[in-house]
Amino acid sequence: MATDAQIITAVIFVFTFVLIASEKLHRTTSALFGAMLMIIAGTVMSFYDTSKGFGAIDFNTIGLLLGMMIIVGVIMETGFFDCIAIKMAKIAKGDVWKIMLMFMVATAVASAFLDNVTTVLLMIPITVTIANTLEIKATPLIMAEILASNIGGASTVIGDPPNIMIASYAEIPFLTFILNIGPIIIVTMLISIFLLKWMYKEDLKQEPKHVEILMEKDEWKEIKNMPVLKKSMVVFGAVIVLFLVHHTLHIPIAVVALMGAITILVWAGIHPGDALQHVHWSTLFFFVGLFILVGGV
Protein backbone atom coordinates (compact mmCIF):
# COMPACT_ATOMS: atom_id res chain seq x y z
CA MET A 1 0.00 0.00 0.00
CA ALA A 2 1.30 3.44 -0.93
CA THR A 3 2.70 5.58 1.87
CA ASP A 4 1.69 9.20 2.48
CA ALA A 5 5.05 10.35 1.05
CA GLN A 6 4.50 8.35 -2.15
CA ILE A 7 0.99 9.76 -2.58
CA ILE A 8 2.14 13.35 -2.06
CA THR A 9 5.07 12.81 -4.45
CA ALA A 10 2.78 11.40 -7.14
CA VAL A 11 0.30 14.28 -6.74
CA ILE A 12 3.04 16.92 -7.05
CA PHE A 13 4.56 15.15 -10.04
CA VAL A 14 1.26 14.80 -11.93
CA PHE A 15 0.17 18.34 -10.97
CA THR A 16 3.43 19.79 -12.34
CA PHE A 17 3.14 18.04 -15.68
CA VAL A 18 -0.51 19.01 -16.03
CA LEU A 19 0.52 22.60 -15.32
CA ILE A 20 3.27 22.38 -17.95
CA ALA A 21 0.87 20.87 -20.52
CA SER A 22 -1.83 23.46 -19.82
CA GLU A 23 0.59 26.31 -20.58
CA LYS A 24 -1.14 28.44 -17.96
CA LEU A 25 2.35 29.38 -16.86
CA HIS A 26 5.63 29.29 -18.74
CA ARG A 27 6.97 25.74 -18.69
CA THR A 28 10.09 26.85 -16.80
CA THR A 29 7.99 28.51 -14.10
CA SER A 30 5.86 25.36 -13.81
CA ALA A 31 8.90 23.09 -13.53
CA LEU A 32 10.55 25.26 -10.87
CA PHE A 33 7.26 25.54 -8.96
CA GLY A 34 6.92 21.76 -8.99
CA ALA A 35 10.52 21.41 -7.81
CA MET A 36 9.85 23.85 -4.97
CA LEU A 37 6.74 21.94 -3.87
CA MET A 38 8.67 18.67 -3.97
CA ILE A 39 11.46 20.02 -1.74
CA ILE A 40 8.97 21.58 0.71
CA ALA A 41 6.94 18.37 0.92
CA GLY A 42 10.09 16.27 1.17
CA THR A 43 11.52 18.42 3.95
CA VAL A 44 8.30 18.39 5.97
CA MET A 45 7.84 14.63 5.53
CA SER A 46 11.57 13.83 5.82
CA PHE A 47 12.03 12.01 2.51
CA TYR A 48 13.68 14.76 0.41
CA ASP A 49 15.60 17.95 1.09
CA THR A 50 17.59 20.70 -0.61
CA SER A 51 20.86 18.75 -0.72
CA LYS A 52 19.18 15.74 -2.33
CA GLY A 53 17.37 18.07 -4.72
CA PHE A 54 20.55 19.72 -5.95
CA GLY A 55 22.20 16.31 -6.04
CA ALA A 56 19.52 15.16 -8.49
CA ILE A 57 20.51 17.82 -11.05
CA ASP A 58 22.44 16.33 -13.97
CA PHE A 59 25.13 18.96 -14.40
CA ASN A 60 26.53 16.99 -17.35
CA THR A 61 23.35 17.87 -19.27
CA ILE A 62 23.25 21.47 -18.06
CA GLY A 63 26.96 22.01 -18.76
CA LEU A 64 26.73 20.55 -22.25
CA LEU A 65 23.74 22.71 -23.16
CA LEU A 66 25.39 25.82 -21.73
CA GLY A 67 28.70 25.26 -23.52
CA MET A 68 27.10 24.55 -26.90
CA MET A 69 24.76 27.55 -26.61
CA ILE A 70 27.74 29.84 -26.13
CA ILE A 71 29.70 28.29 -29.02
CA VAL A 72 26.72 28.44 -31.40
CA GLY A 73 25.86 31.97 -30.30
CA VAL A 74 29.35 33.23 -31.17
CA ILE A 75 29.28 31.49 -34.57
CA MET A 76 25.79 32.84 -35.27
CA GLU A 77 26.90 36.42 -34.67
CA THR A 78 29.52 36.12 -37.42
CA GLY A 79 26.80 35.63 -40.09
CA PHE A 80 28.04 32.16 -41.01
CA PHE A 81 24.59 30.56 -41.27
CA ASP A 82 23.21 33.30 -43.52
CA CYS A 83 26.24 32.91 -45.77
CA ILE A 84 25.74 29.14 -46.09
CA ALA A 85 21.99 29.47 -46.77
CA ILE A 86 22.48 32.00 -49.57
CA LYS A 87 25.27 29.89 -51.09
CA MET A 88 23.01 26.82 -51.16
CA ALA A 89 20.16 28.76 -52.76
CA LYS A 90 22.55 30.02 -55.44
CA ILE A 91 23.81 26.48 -56.12
CA ALA A 92 20.18 25.41 -56.56
CA LYS A 93 19.74 28.35 -59.00
CA GLY A 94 16.31 29.10 -57.58
CA ASP A 95 14.92 25.59 -58.14
CA VAL A 96 12.34 25.14 -55.35
CA TRP A 97 12.82 21.37 -54.99
CA LYS A 98 16.60 21.67 -54.84
CA ILE A 99 16.40 24.52 -52.33
CA MET A 100 14.07 22.51 -50.09
CA LEU A 101 16.28 19.42 -50.31
CA MET A 102 19.49 21.31 -49.57
CA PHE A 103 17.97 23.33 -46.74
CA MET A 104 16.50 20.15 -45.27
CA VAL A 105 19.83 18.33 -45.28
CA ALA A 106 21.67 21.38 -43.93
CA THR A 107 19.13 21.77 -41.12
CA ALA A 108 19.39 18.08 -40.18
CA VAL A 109 23.19 18.22 -40.07
CA ALA A 110 23.16 21.44 -38.04
CA SER A 111 20.58 20.05 -35.61
CA ALA A 112 22.80 17.05 -34.98
CA PHE A 113 25.26 19.38 -33.26
CA LEU A 114 23.15 22.39 -32.29
CA ASP A 115 19.97 22.87 -30.31
CA ASN A 116 16.92 22.19 -32.52
CA VAL A 117 15.10 25.41 -31.69
CA THR A 118 18.24 27.46 -32.31
CA THR A 119 18.78 25.77 -35.68
CA VAL A 120 15.23 26.47 -36.84
CA LEU A 121 15.37 30.07 -35.62
CA LEU A 122 18.58 30.51 -37.60
CA MET A 123 17.21 28.97 -40.80
CA ILE A 124 13.70 30.40 -40.98
CA PRO A 125 14.55 34.14 -41.36
CA ILE A 126 16.93 33.57 -44.26
CA THR A 127 14.50 31.02 -45.77
CA VAL A 128 11.70 33.60 -45.72
CA THR A 129 14.02 36.22 -47.23
CA ILE A 130 15.00 33.91 -50.10
CA ALA A 131 11.37 32.86 -50.65
CA ASN A 132 10.27 36.49 -50.81
CA THR A 133 13.07 37.31 -53.28
CA LEU A 134 12.00 34.46 -55.56
CA GLU A 135 8.29 35.09 -54.88
CA ILE A 136 7.65 31.48 -53.88
CA LYS A 137 5.77 29.99 -50.92
CA ALA A 138 7.99 29.59 -47.88
CA THR A 139 5.70 27.06 -46.16
CA PRO A 140 7.12 23.89 -47.81
CA LEU A 141 10.68 24.99 -47.03
CA ILE A 142 9.90 25.82 -43.39
CA MET A 143 7.98 22.58 -42.81
CA ALA A 144 10.87 20.61 -44.31
CA GLU A 145 13.33 22.39 -42.02
CA ILE A 146 11.25 21.75 -38.90
CA LEU A 147 10.94 18.06 -39.74
CA ALA A 148 14.63 17.78 -40.59
CA SER A 149 15.57 19.52 -37.35
CA ASN A 150 13.74 16.92 -35.29
CA ILE A 151 15.24 14.04 -37.25
CA GLY A 152 18.76 15.41 -37.23
CA GLY A 153 18.55 16.31 -33.55
CA ALA A 154 17.86 12.68 -32.67
CA SER A 155 21.02 11.45 -34.38
CA THR A 156 23.64 12.49 -31.81
CA VAL A 157 24.10 12.76 -28.05
CA ILE A 158 24.16 16.56 -28.22
CA GLY A 159 21.33 17.02 -30.73
CA ASP A 160 18.48 16.85 -28.21
CA PRO A 161 18.30 17.27 -24.41
CA PRO A 162 16.65 13.81 -24.00
CA ASN A 163 19.59 12.29 -25.88
CA ILE A 164 21.98 14.06 -23.53
CA MET A 165 20.19 12.67 -20.47
CA ILE A 166 19.96 9.14 -21.88
CA ALA A 167 23.62 9.06 -22.84
CA SER A 168 24.64 10.61 -19.54
CA TYR A 169 22.80 8.14 -17.32
CA ALA A 170 23.59 5.11 -19.49
CA GLU A 171 27.18 6.29 -20.11
CA ILE A 172 26.86 5.81 -23.86
CA PRO A 173 29.89 7.16 -25.79
CA PHE A 174 29.24 9.82 -28.46
CA LEU A 175 30.40 7.62 -31.36
CA THR A 176 28.53 4.53 -30.13
CA PHE A 177 25.30 6.55 -29.99
CA ILE A 178 25.74 7.71 -33.61
CA LEU A 179 26.63 4.25 -34.94
CA ASN A 180 23.56 2.68 -33.34
CA ILE A 181 20.95 5.28 -34.22
CA GLY A 182 22.54 6.55 -37.45
CA PRO A 183 21.02 3.96 -39.84
CA ILE A 184 17.52 4.62 -38.46
CA ILE A 185 17.99 8.37 -38.88
CA ILE A 186 19.14 7.98 -42.50
CA VAL A 187 16.12 5.82 -43.38
CA THR A 188 13.75 8.22 -41.61
CA MET A 189 15.29 11.16 -43.41
CA LEU A 190 14.92 9.53 -46.83
CA ILE A 191 11.28 8.63 -46.14
CA SER A 192 10.59 12.18 -44.98
CA ILE A 193 12.16 13.66 -48.13
CA PHE A 194 9.96 11.56 -50.43
CA LEU A 195 6.90 12.21 -48.27
CA LEU A 196 7.45 15.98 -48.37
CA LYS A 197 8.01 15.90 -52.12
CA TRP A 198 4.65 14.14 -52.52
CA MET A 199 2.81 16.41 -50.04
CA TYR A 200 4.07 19.62 -51.63
CA LYS A 201 4.26 18.45 -55.24
CA GLU A 202 2.17 21.40 -56.46
CA ASP A 203 4.17 23.98 -54.49
CA LEU A 204 7.42 22.51 -55.77
CA LYS A 205 6.28 23.26 -59.33
CA GLN A 206 6.36 26.99 -58.63
CA GLU A 207 8.31 29.06 -61.13
CA PRO A 208 10.71 31.24 -59.14
CA LYS A 209 11.02 34.88 -60.17
CA HIS A 210 13.92 37.29 -59.88
CA VAL A 211 16.47 34.45 -59.84
CA GLU A 212 19.00 36.93 -61.17
CA ILE A 213 18.66 38.97 -57.96
CA LEU A 214 19.46 35.87 -55.91
CA MET A 215 22.43 34.98 -58.14
CA GLU A 216 23.82 38.49 -57.77
CA LYS A 217 23.88 38.24 -53.97
CA ASP A 218 27.37 38.00 -52.50
CA GLU A 219 27.09 35.49 -49.68
CA TRP A 220 30.45 36.51 -48.26
CA LYS A 221 29.05 39.96 -47.42
CA GLU A 222 26.96 38.21 -44.78
CA ILE A 223 30.13 37.44 -42.81
CA LYS A 224 30.43 40.16 -40.19
CA ASN A 225 33.64 39.08 -38.49
CA MET A 226 35.90 36.69 -40.41
CA PRO A 227 38.67 36.45 -37.75
CA VAL A 228 36.15 35.41 -35.09
CA LEU A 229 34.50 32.98 -37.53
CA LYS A 230 37.81 31.26 -38.33
CA LYS A 231 38.70 30.91 -34.66
CA SER A 232 35.19 29.72 -33.80
CA MET A 233 35.21 27.05 -36.50
CA VAL A 234 38.61 25.77 -35.35
CA VAL A 235 37.32 25.47 -31.79
CA PHE A 236 34.03 23.94 -32.94
CA GLY A 237 35.92 21.35 -35.00
CA ALA A 238 38.14 20.52 -32.03
CA VAL A 239 35.08 20.14 -29.81
CA ILE A 240 33.46 17.70 -32.25
CA VAL A 241 36.67 15.64 -32.41
CA LEU A 242 36.84 15.53 -28.61
CA PHE A 243 33.18 14.49 -28.50
CA LEU A 244 34.10 11.47 -30.61
CA VAL A 245 36.93 10.40 -28.29
CA HIS A 246 35.77 11.79 -24.93
CA HIS A 247 34.94 8.33 -23.59
CA THR A 248 38.44 7.08 -24.39
CA LEU A 249 40.02 10.12 -22.78
CA HIS A 250 37.67 9.84 -19.77
CA ILE A 251 36.55 13.47 -20.17
CA PRO A 252 32.86 14.21 -19.47
CA ILE A 253 31.12 15.53 -22.56
CA ALA A 254 29.95 18.62 -20.66
CA VAL A 255 33.57 19.48 -19.84
CA VAL A 256 34.44 19.32 -23.54
CA ALA A 257 31.63 21.75 -24.43
CA LEU A 258 32.52 24.16 -21.64
CA MET A 259 36.22 24.01 -22.54
CA GLY A 260 35.27 24.92 -26.11
CA ALA A 261 33.09 27.82 -24.96
CA ILE A 262 35.81 29.20 -22.69
CA THR A 263 38.44 28.81 -25.40
CA ILE A 264 36.34 30.84 -27.85
CA LEU A 265 35.83 33.60 -25.29
CA VAL A 266 39.57 33.80 -24.60
CA TRP A 267 40.92 33.32 -28.13
CA ALA A 268 38.37 35.48 -29.94
CA GLY A 269 38.23 38.10 -27.19
CA ILE A 270 34.45 37.85 -26.83
CA HIS A 271 32.97 39.67 -23.84
CA PRO A 272 31.17 37.16 -21.56
CA GLY A 273 28.13 39.41 -21.42
CA ASP A 274 27.75 39.26 -25.20
CA ALA A 275 28.22 35.49 -25.32
CA LEU A 276 25.81 34.79 -22.46
CA GLN A 277 23.03 36.68 -24.28
CA HIS A 278 22.72 33.62 -26.52
CA VAL A 279 22.17 31.23 -23.62
CA HIS A 280 18.56 30.05 -23.30
CA TRP A 281 18.43 30.39 -19.53
CA SER A 282 14.76 29.44 -19.38
CA THR A 283 15.60 26.10 -21.03
CA LEU A 284 18.42 25.40 -18.59
CA PHE A 285 16.27 26.22 -15.56
CA PHE A 286 13.42 24.16 -17.00
CA PHE A 287 15.66 21.09 -16.88
CA VAL A 288 16.96 22.05 -13.44
CA GLY A 289 13.37 22.08 -12.20
CA LEU A 290 12.59 18.73 -13.83
CA PHE A 291 15.71 17.09 -12.40
CA ILE A 292 14.80 18.20 -8.86
CA LEU A 293 11.18 17.15 -9.37
CA VAL A 294 12.07 13.69 -10.69
CA GLY A 295 14.70 13.31 -7.97
CA GLY A 296 11.92 13.55 -5.39
CA VAL A 297 9.99 10.79 -7.12
What would you note in describing this structure?
There is one protein chain. The two termini are 16 Å apart. The protein is an all-alpha fold and 297 residues long. Helix 2 runs parallel beside helix 15 and helix 6 runs antiparallel to helix 7. The protein has two domains: 151 residues, no CATH class; 145 residues, no CATH class. It is 76% helix and 0% strand. The longest helix is centred in the middle third of the chain and has 26 residues.
Summarize the model shown.
The protein is mostly helical and 297 residues long.
Q: Give the overall silhouette.
A: globular
Summarize the helix and strand pattern as letters. HHHHHHHHHHHHHHH
> Helical element count?
15
Going by helix content, strand content and strand pairing, the class is: mainly alpha
Instruction: Identify low-pLDDT runs.
Output: none
Subcellular location: Membrane
InterPro entries: Cit_transptr-like_dom, Diverse_Ion_Transporter
Transmembrane segments: 6-22, 29-48, 54-75, 96-114, 172-196, 234-267, 279-296
Main location: membrane
Note the topology.
Elements lengths: L3 H19 L4 H19 L4 H6 L3 H19 L2 H12 L4 H16 L4 H19 L4 H15 L7 H10 L3 H26 L11 H6 L9 H24 L3 H15 L4 H5 L4 H16 L1
Attribute tags:
297 residues; mainly alpha; 2 domains; 15 helices; globular
